Amino acid sequence: MCIFCEIANGTIPAKRVYEDDQVIAFLDVAPTSYGHTLVVPKAHIDSFLDCDPATLHHVMDVAQKLARQLMSNLNCDGINVLTNAKEAAGQTVPHFHVHLIPRYEDSAKEN
Ligand code: 5GP
Ligand code: ZN
After folding, report:
1. Residue 30 CA, ligand 1 centroid: distance in Å
2. Distance 59 CA to ligand 2 centre (A)
3. Which site among 39, 51, 90, 103 is 20 to 30 Å from 45 CA-CA?
């Protein structure tokens, strides 16, 4: 079973910041910046390319809500919202996920 499926079913621990019946969001174990969050469908979907429209819509809806929360809670100046699809594009975990990476005008505040 893949690592994000194991996080979704609770076998592997993670710092969860959001959960509903279809989606889970948790902090990245190797954050690019403080607050780096991953938004993940609970069902195993290999990548963005394989995601059905309804799930994609819900994942992005949750991603937007969490991005807005990060903006106000962390007082960051911007946020990268991205997904890597396939190994050649940098995907290392073969379970669809959207990265939320808070950004700061002063990069010294990123960590
Ligand atoms: P990708 O390279 O596939 O776009 O992103 C995978 C992300 O998952 C990386 O940023 C990596 O740090 C994170 N990651 C990998 N394994 C784990 C884990 O076991 N727990 C958590 N919280 N994040 C993980
Ligand atoms: Zn999986």
Report:
1. 7
2. 15
3. 103
